[in-house]
Specification:
By secondary structure, the chain is an alpha+beta fold. The protein contains 27 helices and 31 strands. It binds ligand ANZ. The site of ligand ANZ has 19 residues, from strand 11 and strand 15.
């Protein structure tokens, strides 16, 4: 008997699949298309571990299942290889990023190949290839020409460790998302993409996406739309002379409760007027301290702090009350107008602040005590009546809201406005390893687009590419790169030396896969129309407000430009659960607890065992701990399928000598396989991989029992059953399925075979439930074999314990029997 040896089988089939190009996709309109995509990986220094592998295993099972179901499947792979980690890795290892990426990519590719994933490698892309980033630059210029890419001097997050700026979404709890170092604010001239222009569309279109609620909520909160009013207060005192300042409020109905104003410490008006305040020194110290804090820390700070701007006052436009002005870091400069009307009677933060600094509190509800606006008033408006609110006393909040706004509008002191928390996307990086920004600065003509026929602007090779930390990109040290001529006036000009955030590359790569070798355009319209949008997008949840938002934004821009016909790139998003180390910790190279597939393969487990393990370990979208025992179980399962098939094959050989019966008979064997077929087919459609594999395991156990009973008597039934079993196994364990399929005499690949259909007639339940009535009223139920006779049914019904009581001492005058449904005793 042949032994199951994955080390021999797996590389052999991988080679056959590659040579026969069975996973290559082409635009064949005869079949419906399905675009299955996993996030393209970042080929970092640390190799892929079994956590990463889970993502690709899920995608591959989906791709294979669809292919066998008659879909024209596009399942591509490539490398998201620009960015900080690659550069930092290269610096650490004293090699060029190019070399580091090439090495890492080779390693990753080898790992993916070893797993037998059904990628169309002819479409492989690398975001650091000039043939690719030429089009990233082209798309940058599209944004530039549409006024959606602009340069601005502003305070930005700066990571002193990575020596570059970071986008807002790359700062987590005051730390750099990559290296974890504390960030600070620095004033720098930077490039931005105007994603805020698309805020409403990015928000509204979320509704129709088949994404998890968790990710949608994260995007909604990130965009942070809130409807409110801008109310203008006059400033008086110091040298402010009736200058106006706007506040943003979502609660203008509480305006009579405003007892002070709070401004963000960095607010420009503070600098302007507070310099003449007696306590300027104290104010200045506070402002400097604020600059060093992250926004998040400011928002969650337990103890509110602030300083009064002595001598400066604001006038409440609704009642002309003069109120003091404070600065406090719980008010953020970048949100709303950077100033708030403080209503300590209803706003929690203002309340805490007023308590701490002994500021007056006015309650504007009839309760005359603190009522939390955000949690109480907002929800139960009708229950609260206004008080201390002049002519509006006694109105409920909704009515008060309308009337107070009308009054403010009349005096031009207020108007409704909409605010968003999302800011424009900061795109420039002062680092070497990125797509050069294709802009030329001319002192006369300003920033200009590099002419299209001069693209790509190639990243020059550099000996020393470490960031200097002075806020300038290392490219500014390469005169041959930097010095150029103005495309307009022909005079001397300088190239932009910043590079793009790596997320620019990944904002459109899914389109390039449709047409990866196009030298005339980023992608051909027809190919994009054929393949896109992506039908199933698979990846972790960590990119919720970065990649997944940016890609949606670029897609909408391309749609507006008429380049594509769809507005959302990823119809269905599947966020897989993480694989944790066996001790429940996150796998990481630094903790030394990662498990890599290569090692498991060389131990002899084989890729198929790993794949089974990845999917059987638990529901695909939940985290799970890796376990060695689980690997053993997965391997034994495949081993049993192998052995069963070998035993069958031996019998089949004997039959060919004419020794055995070969009639197909209906049997428990067929029942077992049809039942499993139905379960696996349904589970694969709903991604319930673990239960599908459980059903296959149960089926194998049952087949072993049946085999012991009939000893392969019904050979054709067994052949059909084993072949079907292998087809059902193919999306999960493609190598062993292919090998045994071929041993059974097939020449075509199992992976291009038609997914087997199941026959419902084998699934009919063996028992039926019969309703028992007495004089037409339901009195009980009996369960019997489906082929029970009328006599058996009536006897069972009469003796049923619930029914018997009604029949006691009664004469049954008539018995009505409806086969397989009902018995009615008329008494
Ligand atoms: C007065 C008031 C009274 C407020 C009340 C709330 C409750 P959302 O819903 O998140 O948009 N605010 C405005 N700008 C701010 C800034 N730059 N930094 C910190 N807080 C700011 O929150 C809007 C509310 O947050 C605004 O409404 C304002 O406080 C505060 F009972 O105005 B409110």
């Amino acid at each position: 008997m042949k032994r199951y040896n994955p080390k021999e089988i797996e590389p052999r089939w991988q080679k056959v699949w590659e040579d026969s190009k069975i996973y290559q996709a082409s635009e064949d309109p005869a079949k419906p298309k399905k675009y299955v995509l996993e996030y393209f990986p970042y080929p970092s220094g640390a190799a892929m571990h079994v956590g990463h592998v889970r993502n690709y295993t899920i995608g591959d099972a989906i791709a294979r299942f669809n292919r066998m179901n008659g879909y024209n499947v596009l399942h591509p792979m490539g490398w998201d290889a620009f960015g900080l980690p690659a550069e930092n890795y290269a610096i650490k290892n004293q090699i060029s990023p190019r070399k580091a990426i090439d090495e890492n990519t080779d390693r990753f590719k080898k790992q993916l190949m070893q797993m037998g994933f059904s990628y169309d490698w002819s479409r492989e892309i690398d975001s650091t290839d000039p043939k690719y980033y030429r089009w990233t630059q082209w798309l940058f210029l599209l944004l530039f020409k549409k006024g959606l890419a602009y340069q601005q001097e502003s305070l930005q997050w700066w990571c002193p460790h990575d020596k570059t700026v970071l986008a807002n979404e790359q700062v987590e709890a005051g730390r750099c998302w990559r290296c974890g170092h504390e960030v600070e604010k620095k004033s720098l001239k930077q490039w931005f993409f105007k994603i805020t222009d698309y805020a409403d569309r990015l928000l509204d279109d979320l509704d129709d996406l088949d994404w998890s609620d968790a990710i949608k909520t994260m995007q909604r909160n990130w965009i942070g739309k809130s409807q409110g009013a801008a109310v203008t207060f006059k400033l008086t005192g110091l040298s402010s002379n009736n200058e106006h300042i706007e506040v943003f409020t979502t609660a203008h109905d509480t305006i009579y409760g405003t007892t002070f104003m709070v401004m963000a410490p960095e607010h420009p008006l503070i600098e302007k007027y507070a310099q003449s305040a007696e306590n300027w020194l104290e104010l200045k110290q506070y402002i400097d301290k604020t600059r060093r804090k992250s926004e998040l820390d400011r928002e969650i700070e337990k103890q509110k702090t602030g300083v009064e701007v002595q001598g400066l006052y604001a006038i409440n436009p609704i009642n002309n009350q003069k109120i003091p002005v404070w600065i406090a870091d719980y008010v953020l400069l970048g949100y709303g107008t950077g100033a708030v009307m403080a209503v300590p009677g209803e706003d929690e933060r203002d309340y805490e602040f007023a308590q701490k600094y002994n500021l007056p509190i006015i309650y504007t509800t009839e309760e005359q005590e603190f009522v939390n606006y955000q949690t109480e008033l907002k929800k139960h408006r009708k229950n609260y009546k206004l008080a201390n609110s002049g002519e509006f006393d006694g109105l409920d909040f909704d009515e008060g809201r309308i009337k107070i706004l009308a009054k403010l509008e009349k005096t031009e002191a207020g108007q409704t406005i909409t605010q968003y928390k999302m800011r424009d996307w900061l795109i420039s990086r002062q680092r070497y390893w990125g797509t050069p920004i294709p802009i030329i600065h001319c002192s006369k003509d300003g920033p200009l687009a590099v002419p299209e026929d001069h693209l790509p602007v190639v990243l020059p090779e550099m000996e020393s590419y470490e960031p200097s930390g002075d806020g300038r990109s290392p490219l500014s040290n390469v005169p041959e790169f930097m010095n150029t001529t103005c495309p307009k006036c022909g005079g001397p000009a300088e190239r932009e030396t910043d590079t793009m955030d790596g997320f620019a590359c990944s904002s459109w790569y899914f389109l390039r896969f449709a047409d990866p070798h196009n030298d005339e355009a980023a992608f051909g319209r027809e190919k994009a129309d054929f393949w896109l949008p992506v039908d199933d997008y698979i990846g972790g949840a960590e990119h919720a407000v970065m990649h997944l938002l940016y890609a949606r934004f670029w897609t909408k821009v391309m749609y507006d430009e008429g380049l594509i016909a769809f507005q959302e790139p990823f119809k269905t998003l599947r966020n897989h659960g993480m694989i944790l180390a066996s001790d429940g910790n996150k796998m990481s190279k630094s903790k030394g607890n990662t498990i890599e597939p290569d090692g498991l393969i060389s131990q002899g487990y084989g890729a198929d065992t790993i794949r089974i393990m990845e999917l059987f370990i638990g529901p695909w979208n939940q985290a799970a701990n890796w376990s060695v025992e689980g690997m053993g179980g997965a391997h034994r399962f495949l081993q049993r399928i192998w052995t069963l098939t070998q035993e069958y094959l031996e019998r089949d050989e004997a039959r060919q000598a004419g020794a055995l019966d070969d009639t197909i008979v209906e049997s428990d064997i067929l029942k077992a396989i049809h039942k499993t077929n139905k379960k696996v087919s349904e589970d694969l459609s709903t991604l319930s991989f673990n239960t599908a594999i459980a059903a296959l395991m149960e089926c194998v156990n049952q087949l072993y029992k049946l085999k012991e009973q009939d000893e392969f008597t019904n050979l054709d039934t067994w052949r059909y059953t084993i072949e079907t079993l292998l087809q059902l196994l193919a999306p999960f364990a493609p190598h062993i399925a292919e090998e045994l399929w071929q041993q059974l005499g097939h020449e075509e690949s199992i992976h291009t075979s038609q997914w087997p259909a199941y026959d419902e007639s084998y699934l009919v339940e063996a028992t039926v439930t019969i309703v028992v009535q007495v004089n037409g009223k339901l009195r009980g139920e009996v369960e019997l074999a489906a082929d029970a006779t009328e006599e058996q049914v009536v006897t069972a019904a009469k003796t049923n314990e619930k029914v018997a009581g009604y029949l006691q001492a009664q004469t049954i005058r008539k018995t009505i029997y409806v086969p397989a449904k009902l018995v009615n005793f008329v008494i």
